[in-house]
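User: two proteins, same treatment. go.

Assistant:
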Amino acid sequence: MSTIHAALEIGTTRTVLAIGEAQGASGRLRITCRASIASAGVKKSQIYNIAQASQSVRSVLKEIERKQLESGTAITINNAFLVVNGRHVAADRFQGTAQIARRKVSVDDMEEAQRTARAMTLPKDREILDIVEGDYSVDGYGGTRSPEGLSGRVLRLDAIHIHADANRINDARTAAGEARLDLRDPLFAATCAADAVLDESEKRDGTMVLDLGGGCTGYAIYAGGTLVATGVIGVGGDHISNDIACAFQTTQAQADELKLAEASAIVGADAEASPRVQVGGASPLMEQRTISRHALDTVVNARCRELCAILRETLDENGLLHRLHGGIVLTGGGAAMRSLPALVTREFGAGVRFGVPVAVDGLEDEAHPEAYAAIAGALMYAHRNYEEKSLIQTLFGGFK
């Protein structure tokens, strides 16, 4: 019997639920069903209204059920892994240490370094999302993943602890629980996306994954085959929509439509487009009007360049700006912004591509599969770490 898991993301703009099934011994994952609806009760990746967020979870569960019924299957999802994003997510470096007992590194020494690398104490209001182990060093000489047999006195292991506000995660658990969905491990969106879209050569060559969400942008930077920096920047797609709404006196819905259908991250990128953009009336009593395409692109370009400037500063601080030989990979719903890859290439001088999940099937009919990268990565994590088929029970019946 195949292993089945589910993953949930309660985002600023959308709530997404997907089901993944392992495909035998191939190591590949198939997303057998997915659903996405507009979120309610969420701002800047944080739940502010439990009832509304719970209704979003309930609605996405019903959408999954509807799709399954159309395909001849009815399922009840009992629990899911939670994909977490938001400015409350942080990452800290920590180093595990072991005294080399017999002057040559043994497996026991490596395990001791691993144990101490995971022993970092967090405040009570923080919850761990992941601990990513990096390179070992022996007597200060580092840069190896396999130190067994090396001579020395002290073995050290670098690690990155990714953690989040425990209260924010508890809010998600409460919202999902009210929709009769239990949540399993909370997982960081950016590193999940990176796991789904990067191969080992890209991690070795130096690559940055940008997970562009509605309320924020997560990043994960790899070099030498390991994660070297990660975090969240408080600029996302909603900020672009808000800028448009303020600049042109539109409703939020109109601003979202203009952002997706007309705006470009580079001013004048579409030379053949009409110089004016039509804005529908906010109500039947209000007439349609037009705004300058140049002005619209200018507003969007300014916010996108701000995001790039913050990222460049982050790369500079970590000495990584000139190590991105593998380029930059765009994931998340915000990656669909017109001309965004060209802008990122211009700002960083690096190659840019969309992050389509690898070793994952079931997204072939999706116009923007990069939007599901974090969900795909969470499902990959579930299949790597949990063998039991306990997350979903196949039942015939409906949700209440």
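Protein 2:
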Amino acid sequence: MFHKHRLLVALIVFFVIVATAIVGYMIFLDIGFIDALYMTAITLSTVGFSEVAEMNDQAKIFSILVIMSGIGTIGFVVSSFADVISAGKFNQVRRQRKMKETIAALQDHYIVCGAGETGQIIIRELEARGALFVVIENNPKVIEELDGLVIEGDATREESLLEAGVKKARGLVTTLSKDADNVYTVLTAREHNPDMLILARSHDEYSYKKLRRAGANNSVSPNEMGGKKLASMLLRPSISHFMDHVIDTANISLEMEEIDIQTGSILCNTRLKDSKIAEHTGLVILALRKADSKETFIFNPKANTLLEAKDKMIVIGEKEQIKLLETMAKSTMSGTHEH
């Protein structure tokens, strides 16, 4: 701000000198505006072109004053302009350094590779949920429109993924424009983080298997998802409306969430009926995925279902209710007594 203010002052002083010089030449040499402007230009620039009128003593002394003040002012303008440029670059470098330090300190975050149309939707959803995430994008124009933590780079390159903290990330989604780039990104990310959840966008039906073999946990085709969504809205409009209401982050009243039961929590080795989850939280447990099953869900689990460490509960309810269950899933017996 200081540098910009100084540049503004320098420009005002310069224009005052120019205006004064024009008026002075018009008076001392009795010439018109254009000739006076010409005299001002050749005097301030010291190019040495011929004068438009015979110089009298007053005009000569006036020219000396114009040259002395003009050269100093021009130097001040150039110096101030250079300071503004260097200050801008310095601030940009400082912001980038601070951003890199912030990203380096992240843990258990998400990485979004590509901020195209699909990527932008994912970014908005993550922002609405308050999730920690880093975006990798190589288009400077797109980057200018993004807020938050952004890395300018190629997501297929190992350096970009490492800079985004892929080794400590909780999940990664790649939505690059080419399936080959998505496959390469998945391969590199999986190599550095074997346990991370990786999702990928596929553009054609043949890419799904390639992405899975590369290490993606799942792959989604926007065309296929869009088609299924439209068919659902056509055939089951009420159900589709309800599901939109559940996951609509713009106006959330209900949420569907996945809760992990931590080792040693008060829910471990407890029957569902004895856990009193519904009594304490008011949540509805839609499904349960046992720790030893990566694909199979137990829908509408029975009251005598045993809850164990690392089981995942799929629940639906309000935010505060979900937070209560998250606390129960993490709390230990000793922690409960202390409380």
